[in-house]
Amino acid sequence: MDLRGIANGVSNTVNSNVIVSIQRSTGTTMGAGRKQVPTYAAPVTGPAQIQALEAAELKMMDGIGLQGTFRAIYLRGTLAGIVRPASTGGDLVTLPDGSKWLVVRVFESWPTWSKAAILLQGGTQ
Question: Model's pTM, two decimal places?
């Protein structure tokens, strides 16, 4: 039974899916001044559901010391935040309006879908 598909069918009637671009973090390279510069794999696109974070999730986010504009993303496939053993940072999500969002926390990760918190990069929205 595809529970994510059923839930998405219901939520999609109120909040339409959008096509997003996902770039998987591949680690870092050394830039000018020995500054680490994040690197990403080639982008892949697909539908996602972007929503506000729930109160409990906002409370969890308070503990990681980040400030900014957060959203929740539901996506078929997997997303990753920082994975220290693999030396990778968070995946990068680009929305249709061109805004870039960093995956900062994965709330749920299943074989066919995931839910994560994303943080707006380079400005406010």
Answer: 0.83
